[in-house]
Amino acid sequence: MSPTANTTKFFDCYKGVELPRLPLPPSPPPPTTPKGYVLFASANAYAGHGGNPIDDQPASVHSVDECATRCNADDRCGCVTYQVASSTNQVQCWKREQCVAYQFESSPGYDVLVNLQRTPMNLPTPPAKDAIALGFTIEAEGFGCVVEAETIEEARHARPAAAAAVSTPKGVEARAANGSLSDFLAEMAAMTRTPLAAYAKAWTYLPQVMVDLGKTVTPTEPPEGMVYVPKAMFSYECRGIEIEGDDEHGVDVQMPWEARPQRNHAKNMTVGPFYMDRAPVTNVRYFAYLGATGYAPSDRRFWLAQWNGSASPPAHLEAMPVTYVSLQEARLFCSWAGGRLPHTWEWQYAAQGTDGRLYPWGSDKNKEGALPTFNTGQKCPGPEKVGVHSPAGDSPFGLQDMVGNVWQYTDEFYDEHTRAVLLRGGSNYRPSGSTWYFPNQPELNTHNKYFLMSDSYERAGTIGFRCLADA
Length: 471
What we know:
There is one protein chain. The protein is an alpha+beta fold. Among the domains are: 37-115, Hepatocyte Growth Factor (3-Layer(bba) Sandwich); 226-470, paralog of FGE (formylglycine-generating enzyme), CATH 3.90.1580.10. Helices cover 11% and strands 22% of the residues. The protein contains six helices and 21 strands. It has helices at 64-72, 181-191, 283-293, 327-336, 344-352, 455-458, and strands at 9-12, 17-18, 21-22, 37-44, 52-53, 59-61, 79-84, 91-97, 105-115, 133-134, 146-149, 209-210, 226-229, 232-240, 264-271, 274-277, 407-414, 419-424, 446-451, 463-464, 468-470. Strands 12, 14, 15, 17, 18, 19 and 20 form a seven-stranded mixed sheet that branches. Strands 4, 5, 6, 7, 8 and 9 form a six-stranded antiparallel sheet that branches. A three-stranded antiparallel sheet has the order 2-1-11. The model is unreliable at 154-178 (pLDDT under 50).
């Protein structure tokens, strides 16, 4: 390669070290081939492997040059495959057309000559006078990576800028998004200090941590719009409804009492007392919060998309659950309102009571007037107004819209690489066209796992939330 300046430095960006310049190796002597041809040794060209047959059977000739002469005499011929018989030195020669070198099959005992006039190729050229050589090792299953820079300090854009970290959970270190090349090289050096071969090949679970939600200030009187849920012994049983995965591969989440991630969860626990929003937070309540706090996200993509760019919710949306807000935005609202998001077992206890019912109103999914109308198709209709299915669809404590209207944020989990939140309750819409869309069930003993990546990614027209205050 030719450097852009004598001061140019080169770095192995896999191991994070500077590469020394090496003397150029001598050019190997060109292989002896007929004029106008290039040799691909230990290769074969035939149907499906870089050459369509002209000859079904080989011609026996006395030399490789004679094989090339046969190709020259046939305007269709772009290359020849040949094989030298070790006992007689006779050459078996096959003519091929429409030759594509990268499709040739590796085949010891055969060679291919490509006619350069009929099959133009970019052949290697001798190194330039100012060329240099670099050398570095690549470990098995690693990769080669070289970066060129005048100086480390000036190479500020050699590392792609990542999106700013958002809603970083407690215990997760936020990493700088715009580090210098020197920062990047130091990080890679630390990461690759232990060779890949030193790591065990056996697959193991990545342990997950549930984010601590803390406790709220205890209200001195029942908060407006909230329902009191008394303390009780609760038998929590829930399972993830992800499409793929099983316990052997760590699907779903790892509850604080569990040794590893798994799909099914169960624990007898004391829950409550607390206050919980009677209904999911509505657009009109969220608008009041914006007016009181002046909150506006730095990344506005999909934020309050159902408002269609308006600074306030259209009148017909005011009583509907607010959607298109991220997990962190839901947390900020609840904190402003003196609450927090519920733990998944708190949410389930408030929806289910202590008798293990499948739905807030009982065990009959089809109870008249209890469940919002489920929609499919290519367009999300948005949720229904809160309270439309009350009291038929209320929980034992009088909570509305616990299932079937909007998914609701609860607990967040993270491991070394990923973050996710448990969504509860299901929504009134699931796209059609594929069985791979996010599974949707209203049963109270189910949840789904929603991966978290950024505020804009998390905002969805089917996800809302409600707040809880400790009592």
